[in-house]
Amino acid sequence: MVTSPKTAIILGTGLGQLASEITESYEFPYSDIPNFPVSTVEGHAGKLIFGRLGGKDIMAMEGRFHYYEGYSMKEVTFPIRVMYELGIETLFVSNASGGMNPDFKIGDIMIITDHINNFPEHPLRGKNFPTGPRFPDMHEAYDKGLVSMADKIAAEKHIRVMHGVYMGVQGPTFETPSEYRMYHRMGADAVGMSTVPEVIVARHCGIKVFGVSVITDLGIENAAVEVSHEEVQQAANRAQPLMTAIMREMISRS
User: What residues does the Nucleoside phosphorylase domain cover (predicted)?
Assistant: First the structure.
């Protein structure tokens, strides 16, 4: 079977189970794809999947690459360039993140409305790719139409969703209580170690983006607690069915 997807999904920590929703699928391990890095993070399978979800042709990355793994930003975002060449027009991106908004609870789904880039290297640093302008506009990094659609679907399905700003940081350490306080005061509602570079390059390529974070731990002021990668995965797995329901329906309607 040959598909012609216009939609791609990046499946983040603990959210790879969404891959089981993809039907008529065929897969390519990252190790078999020229120039693709290989994810070294537990819980990231490392394969490119083509198939159908919500009645539409899609492609999905099961496992992503991170700056903290030692890759350059060009390597981290190389799959987005591949998506552009394959004709992808809309990107759905998911991640696990630490919540700093006092209204958040562990297991909440946060629709990303904007982000703050706190990585030490910008993914567009260097010679400009011809996919977009030297100085791309980022006033609507996350498509407002897709955000509205997600809100409507969540309301129909009685799923609690929050809105917020995502802070992208280098990692791999989880945040100190002081860092949580600083990021929240800077305007962020959640913090994580991915997503922002991929979104920047997607927008540079003219690809629309919808982003969602699963709040897997809390760094609320005066209430930050110790967290482990295993706990992050467990919390993300518990929220996965709700996120799957929203994404599946969004893809079907888009």
Answer: 7-251
